[in-house]
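Human: I would love a firmer grasp of how sequence relates to backbone shape in proteins. Could you go through the record with me and say what the backbone is doing? Here is the record:
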Amino acid sequence: MSPPLHLTITLTITFLSDWHIGTGGGRYGQVDALVCRDPESKLPYLPGKTIKGNWRDACEIIALALDAAQAQPSPNTSNNVTAPKWMDYVDLTFGKASSRDDQGSTEGSLQIDAAHFSPTDSAFLSSRYGKALTALRPNVKIDHKTGSAEAMALRIEERVAAGSVLITNLNLRLTNQPTVDACALALLVAGSKFVEYVGGNRRRGAGRCQWILAGCGDWAEQQTLLEHAPKQPAPLNPQIVLPEAMIAEQTNAAQVHRLTLRTMTPVVVPKAIAGNVVESRDELPGSDVLAALMPYFSGAPGIDVRALIASGQLRVSPGYPTGTQRTPLCFDMPKSGDESFHNLLHPQRIEGKQRKMLRGGYVSFDGSGGMQRYSVKKSVRMHATIDDAQQRPTEKVGGLFSYEAIAPDQTFTVHLVLPAGVSFTAQPEQLFRLGIARSTDYGSVKLMSDEASTPTIAGASSSNANTNEPNTELRKMVIHMHTPLLCLGDRLQAEPSVNGLRAELARSYASIESAIDWTKPECFLATERYDGWLRAINMPRPSLIAIAAGSVVRVCLKQAAILSSLQAELDRLQAEGLGQRRAEGFGRIEIDPYWSQIEIFKQQNQTLATTTASDASGAASNQEPNSAAQKTTAAASKCPEDSFHAKIWRRYWRDTIVRQANGNAETIRGEMKFRRDGLNTSQSGALLSVVQRMTVWPNDPFFKEFLEWAAKPGKRKDQWDKVLPELKGLLDLQKVRTLLCCQELPDDPELRLFAARSVLMTAIHQHRHMRDKEGPATPSAFQQGASS
C-alpha cells in the first residue's frame, strides 16, 4: 500500500478592506462582536472552515453555470447512465455532506488549514504595535417605517485593518487520473477568482479580498478545459476490501518504533457532546494513529499487513504526552494540595486531613521518589453552519457549535510494534491527519523522530523499568493497565471488571490465571467508553466499554515461588498485551511497576505537558518595553519599510496620541495659556479653522501666515500675545512630547502633524468647555442686583 499523492498549493488572501471573522461573542458593555483570534498567537486569523465554505459556494455557482451552458444531450449517453457534471467535481473536491434523503457522506480531496499572518507579520504584530491591528466600528439598526435609528440598537463591532495578508497551504489529493485531476484543479482556480468577499458584513463593504493561488498550473489552459464537458470522476474513496485469509504466521521477532508526534494544528478527538460543544480527549487514540500510518506500512512478499493487524501482531499504542503515563488510580492526596502523594497499595494510611483520589491527567516519575503531574493543553474554537438561503447561521442547519481540541505545539509518544517482514517507510517531517474535521483547521500532526529498537517493549515506558522481583513476604502481584483494556466475560460479552480480566487471562495466559488467588483482589478500577465512526459504510461503530487506563489490580499468588517460573509468560503478557483490539493500542499491561513499591511520592509543581521554549519566547515578545534601553530604542524607532507595517505603526501612534491628548486635556490647556479671561470664542474659532487646514508640519503655510497675522497690532493684541509663544513652541517636537506626556513619540513628519493638530484641537475644545461651564469672568448687572 503506497501513500496517496498530494498537490501542495499556497493560497494568499489579501484584504482590500476591513474584515471581520467573528466568534459569536463579545465583551459585555464594550464590544458586541469580537474577531476570531488564534489561541496561541492571539492574532486574528481566517479559519479553514470559512475558506472552504466561501470557496465551495463560488465553485458551486461556477459549476451550475457550466452545467447549464454545456447541457446538451450526448449520443453516447443512455437513459441509465448519468452524464458527467461539474457539480460532481464540487463533491469530489469539497466532499458531500449527508442529508435526510441521502445518508451517505464522502470526504473531499481538498484539505485546507487556517490562514495566518506570515512569520514576519506575526513577529511585528506580536509587539505593542499589534494593538492597532483592529479597530471598533459602530453600527445601528434603521427602522424601515420611520427611517431613523431604532432605540437600543447600537452595535459595536471589531474589525481587522485593510491590507492584511494571510497565507495558508492546501493539499489536494490526486486521483491518479490526469484528466480528472486537471478538471478539479481548474474548477478550484476558477472559484478562487470568483471569491470577492469573506466574513461578516460583506454586503456592506467589509471583507473585500483577493485570492492568489501558487503552484496550480497555467490559468489559460485551465480556461480552455472549463469550456468542455468534464470526464466522469471516479469515487475518491473506493470501498475497502476486507483482508483475505491470514497467511502470516505468528512470530515473536518484532521491531519497536518509538514515534514522537507534534501537533501542528488543533486536534479534535471526540469524547462526548455537551450541548453544542464537542469535547475532545487528551490523547491520540491508537485507532486514529493506526489509520493514519496504514499507507506507510510495507510488507514483504507473501505477507498481508491487514491480516497482521487483525491478529494483533502489528500494534500501535495511544499517543500520550512524551515522558508520561496515565495517572494510576491508586494514588490520593490532601484536598489542600500542599503535601505529597500517597500510594494506597500500602497499608499505612495518612489520617487527620481530608483526602481525594487522583483522577485524570498524566504523571511522570523521576526514579528517586518524586512525581510530577501533567495535563494536556486544550483550546476551544467556535464555528457556524451557514444557511445557503439566508447566508447566515440558523438553527435550521445547526447554527453555532464549538470544538474542544488538543492545542498545537505539543509532543506525544507512540510505540509501534512491527512483526518480521513489515517495515515503516514514513520519514521525519512527515505530516499526518488525525481526528475529525481533518479537511479544514484540525488534525495536522508531524512526525518528529523515529527511534527503532529490536527488543520488545514492556507495558510502561523505559523510565519505569519493571523489576519483576517476587515479593516473598506478601506474595502479591500488581497488574497495571497502562492503556484501556477491552475484556470479554465467560459468555463473550463486554465485562470491564475483575471478572473480565480473569476471563481474558484464562483464555490467553492460563498459567498466570491459575497461579492467582482471585478471592480478595484489591481493585482501583474505572471504566471508559469509546465511540467511533466507520467511514467505509457511513455507520457508527459499536460502543466499546473498557477498563480505563491507570486502573490497578493487586492479587495474591497461591505460591510465592511460582512467580519466577512464570517469568516468561509475564514477559510475553507485557510485550503482546491482553484483551481485544490490541492492534489499536488497547490492552497494554504492566506487572509490578516501579512506583508500586514506593509508599510516598514527593509532589512537584503541576505543569502542562507541552510548554516549550517557543511559548516562553512568544510570551516575552508580547510584553511592553520596561527598561530604559528598550524605551530608548522604541523612541528612536522609525517607520517600517513594509507598507502594511507602516500603516499599523502609524495607526498605533495615532491612537496613542489621541489617548494621551484626551487624558491630559486640562494640562494641555494650562500649558498652552488658554485661560478663561484670554481668547474669546471668535478667536479660538479662527485658530480652529487654521488647525483643520494644516497639511504639513512644521512648515505649514497656513499656520505661519496665521502667526504673522496674530502678531500684528490690533484690537485684541494683548490676548494673542499670551498664547503666541506657546503656539510657536509647538514647532519643537520635544515641546509636543512634553505636552502629550509621550517621550517615545517618533520623529515622523506625518505623526508630528497629527500630534500638533491633536494638541491644538484639545486645547481649543477644553478652553471652550471651560468658558461654557464657568460662565463669564465678571458678574452681570442683573446678577449684581440680585445679590445685593
In short: Residues 637-774 form one domain. The chain has 21 helices and 35 strands.
